[in-house]
Amino acid sequence: MEKLKNKIRIIGPNCIGTFVPNELDMLFLDRKKLKRPSEGSIGFITHSGAVGSALLDMASNEGVGISKFASIGNRIDVDEVDLLEYLGKDVETRCIVLYLESTERGSELINVAKKIKKPIIALKAGKTEKGGEAVVSHTGALAGSGNIYSTAFRQAGIIETNNIEDIFDCAKALSTQPVLKGKKIAILTNGGGLGIITTDLAIDNGLEIAELSKETSKALKKVLPSYASPNNPVDITGDADTARYEKAIEILMKDKEIDGVICITLFQTPTLEDDIIEVLKDSKMYGKPFIVCATGGEYTFERAKKLERFGVPVYSTPQRAVKAMRCLLDYGKVLKR
């Protein structure tokens, strides 16, 4: 970096450009085909223009904002280390996403990542033999051993994911939620089946279903109908309204034995009105991880987008919600080192 001080820096070639919401748009892609995300706190660095454009489109479609985006292509000058260092100092960026095919400055990448006090999520492509050959064909660079990269990522506190969906889902959670300080979570649902599925998935992903305290169970019984379940997962049943959700969320979030909450909200039920969005949005005041799972079609999707704009991460399936919560636990472990 020092030798290039006061010189013009170049990003690319073989890239789709850079993007900063409301400031800079050098993507050169039709806005009708690739929507631009709004302002947010996720910074993207990608070797691949195709992966980058897909992530941008996903972010825009789901109402998720970003801070900065750079597609670096064949890296004639500026590379992933330069941009990682830049985003690490950028006050508008709370979480960094890195799609990496290869690096020529591995040790510097790890050293820079270690110094950054914000979550970094990476997807390393070309980890298999055939995938590595494809990287050479794509950028002319050697991919390197997948195991070496994974080990280096762990040492640097970089959270590694295996696919585009996971990298996007983790970024949504880490850019908006506090870390999960322990493994004990509560599951709140107005649909019993989804609560059971989420319970199994949480345990499979190394989370624990918290044993509710006597005080919490007693408080839930006071506000729930007799046919609801005051146990964890807490099933407030399909006739739950906004007031029932609000009371249950408050009780669970105030329980000191609960580290975080996955709230399953079936917007389709006839008793649930749009004012539930305000209640879910206000969950941030408790200072614990709060993730919403909302499964459904267009009606559900539109309400999920509204929540995303308020900084509440919403996932369309229990699998995605649980993985996001697990990501918050993983980064919590990084911070404890």
Task: List key phrases describing it.
337 residues; alpha/beta; Rossmann fold; 2 domains; 6-stranded parallel sheet; 12 helices; 13 strands; 42% helix; globular
Give a written overview of the molecule.
This protein is of the alpha/beta class and about 325 residues long. It has two domains: about 1-175, Rossmann fold, CATH 3.40.50; about 185-335, Rossmann fold (3-Layer(aba) Sandwich). Helices cover about 40% and strands about 15% of the residues. The strands form two sheets. A seven-stranded mixed sheet has the order 2-1-4-3-5-6-7, sandwiched between helices. Strands 8, 9, 10, 11, 12 and 13 form a six-stranded parallel sheet that branches. Helix 3 links the parallel strand 5 (about 95-100) and strand 6. The chain is globular. It starts with 17 loop residues before the first strand and ends with a helix. Mean pLDDT is about 90; it is low at about 140-145.
